[in-house]
């Protein structure tokens, strides 16, 4: 398995990096300090690849690997939101755990391990339990942490405090942390999920459990632990445990079919592929999602069915299937770019523009042979390809800051979970859950340009308000776009636009194919309504109204001292004479 990665990494990183990076990185980009760091990193990669190449395949299998992550001890990557697809084959497991948690005795802290091998679905089951309606009603406080190899009890307590309080812990002293947690929790019943606890980490468990016993341990509070090893029970003196088994062939097929959407003539091949997954949900998910892109290509399905990855021992198949998905990336350039990202520490927030520049400096992005695209565009295309290859994972990237989507592509679902997002240039409203306008609500840090399309899909003003645009002060340009302008097309255009009030700092507003005969009150006044009065959009420099065929008037402009451009296109029912009549009220800044 390692051979392909060694070739890509060695050729892409080791042969090109040092020869090209010196001039381009240090001179063109000003990354002199990064060059030394890059040199050290590449030496590290060379050593690890050489070591990996010399190992036997059995030493690389997932079940036995002992990987030391490069980042912090607590990952932000796994979040307690339900996956896009409904969980399959775990309904009874969920019911049992929910019953166990809601009927827990009041005189002790109930700890429930969900135990199983990697890829068996422990985290998915824990998410489903966490979001179960009965659990939401039963526990006053719920919090979720993903734990990695390096474990420190004080740090773990601090992360629990930060997750509950939404504020940074000022101390890493156990006594202080416990006092802070007691203050925040009071007498509330809590559920804590510790996801991905490894066997090697359990020396901390007794100390941690003693701490948690001091926090409402007599009111039915509970802890869920997902782990690969059963002996966590012995170390932690846990009351109950839940061991996950593999999915049946029928359950695996149901899961695969939902992801791959196969044609009837591909069912026999698909069922054989699924059977070879040995009931591991992770493998079924990876292959189903990959083959969805080839759901009319029988040749591709046959190549997967007959692939040599199935010759690997059962416990090593997870890595083999991951390699298979890597092999199916479009070309060597995309593969090199993907492999390069492995040098970043876990949870590293990677700036999109900086990443593209680094790819270019290292020679991973080459000039388009047709000469129609710049290297920066090709780099951005690679990012888009990688994003599109893993759409179901987008919602887990809660530290993602910039997401640039081409207007012809359907944006990923559940972007509202990407709460660190700073850039979302394009959002297409849909009716399906996860694509509705409310997804914009939690994105408090959005800035720059936001283009909102398909506004006809918003049902009411109340739905539109959930986007909470006026509380996004970093947005300076907003485009409101409908698909058509027709008197009968959408009778609530005015109400929808009323609910999409912009922030006070906005500089450019565009409205296209609005079907109403008059703009809503805020758009006519060019002011946003606050609790006590109206605040002018005083920083506006440009207003554009396009294809608003039914609109009879234009906004009032006298309170817009910085306005430079008023653009009116295809305003069929608008009386342009009213512009001249209103000329005295135009701001002096307006360009003629």
Automatic annotation (TrEMBL):
GO terms of biological process kind: defense response to other organism
Gene Ontology molecular function: ADP binding
Domain (Disease resistance protein winged helix): residue spans on this chain: 343-388
Leader sequence segment: none
NB-ARC domain span: 96-261
InterPro entries: Apaf_helical (IPR042197), Disease_R_plants (IPR044974), LRR_dom_sf (IPR032675), LRR_R13L1-DRL21 (IPR056789), NB-ARC (IPR002182), P-loop_NTPase (IPR027417), WHD_DRP (IPR058922)
Pfam family, one: WHD_DRP
Alphabetical UniProt keywords: Leucine-rich repeat, Nucleotide-binding, Plant defense
Occurrences of domain R13L1/DRL21-like LRR repeat region (ranges): 437-571
Protein's recorded name: Uncharacterized protein
Taxon lineage: Eukaryota, Viridiplantae, Streptophyta, Embryophyta, Tracheophyta
């Amino acid at each position: 398995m390692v051979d392909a990665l060694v070739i890509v990494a060695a050729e892409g990183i080791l042969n090109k990096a040092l020869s090209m990076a010196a001039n381009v990185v240090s001179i063109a980009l000003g990354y002199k300090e990064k060059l030394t760091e890059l040199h050290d990193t590449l030496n590290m990669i060379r050593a690890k690849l050489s070591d990996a190449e010399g190992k036997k395949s059995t030493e690389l299998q997932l079940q036995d690997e002992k990987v030391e992550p490069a980042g912090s001890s607590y990952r932000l990557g796994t979040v307690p939101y339900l996956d896009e697809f409904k969980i399959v084959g775990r309904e009874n497991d969920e019911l049992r755990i929910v019953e166990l948690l809601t009927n827990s005795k009041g005189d002790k802290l109930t700890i429930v391990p969900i135990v199983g091998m990697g890829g068996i679905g422990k985290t998915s089951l824990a998410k489903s339990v966490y979001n179960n309606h009965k659990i939401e009603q039963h526990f006053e406080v719920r919090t979720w942490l993903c734990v990695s190899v390096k474990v420190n009890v004080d740090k773990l307590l601090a992360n629990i405090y930060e997750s509950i309080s939404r504020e940074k812990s000022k101390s890493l002293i156990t006594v202080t942390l416990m006092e802070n947690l007691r203050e925040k929790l009071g007498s509330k019943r809590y559920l804590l999920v510790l996801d991905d606890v490894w066997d090697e980490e359990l020396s901390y468990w007794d100390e941690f459990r003693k701490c948690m016993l001091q926090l409402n341990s007599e009111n039915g509070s509970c802890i869920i632990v997902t782990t690969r090893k059963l002996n966590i029970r012995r170390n932690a003196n846990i009351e109950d445990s839940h061991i996950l088994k593999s999915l049946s062939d029928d359950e695996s097929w149901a899961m695969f079919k939902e992801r791959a959407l196969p044609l009837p003539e591909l069912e026999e091949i698909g069922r054989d592929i699924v059977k070879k997954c040995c009931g591991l949900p992770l493998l079924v998910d990876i292959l189903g999602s990959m083959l969805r892109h080839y759901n009319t290509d029988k040749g591709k399905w046959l190549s997967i069915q007959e692939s040599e990855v199935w010759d690997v021992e059962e416990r090593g198949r997870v890595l083999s299937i991951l390699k298979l998905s890597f092999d199916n990336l479009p070309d060597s350039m995309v593969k090199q770019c993907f492999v390069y990202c492995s040098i970043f520490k876990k949870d590293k927030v990677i700036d999109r523009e900086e990443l593209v520049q680094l790819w270019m400096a290292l020679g991973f992005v080459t000039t388009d042979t047709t000469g129609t695209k710049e290297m920066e565009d090709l780099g951005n295309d690679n990012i888009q390809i990688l994003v599109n290859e893993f759409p179901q994972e987008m919602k887990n990237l809660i530290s993602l800051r910039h997401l640039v989507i081409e207007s012809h592509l359907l944006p990923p679902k559940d972007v509202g979970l990407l709460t660190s997002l700073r850039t979302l240039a394009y959002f297409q409203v849909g009716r399906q859950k996860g694509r509705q306008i409310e997804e914009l609500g939690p994105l408090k840090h959005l800035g720059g340009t936001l283009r909102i399309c398909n506004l006809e899909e918003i049902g009411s003003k109340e739905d539109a308000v959930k986007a909470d645009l006026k509380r996004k002060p970093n947005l300076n340009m907003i485009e409101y776009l409908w698909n058509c302008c027709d008197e009968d097309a959408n009778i609530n255009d005015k109400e929808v636009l009323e609910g999409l009030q912009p922030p006070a700092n906005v500089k450019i507003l565009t409205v296209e194919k609005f079907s109403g005969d008059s703009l809503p009150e805020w758009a006519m006044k060019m002011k946003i309504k606050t609790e006590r009065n109206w605040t002018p959009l005083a920083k506006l420099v440009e207003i554009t109204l396009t294809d608003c065929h039914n609109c009879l008037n234009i906004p009032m402009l006298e309170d817009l001292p910085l306005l430079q451009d008023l653009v009116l296109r295809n305003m069929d029912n608008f009386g342009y004479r009213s512009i001249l009549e209103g000329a005295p009220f135009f701001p002096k800044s307006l360009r003629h």
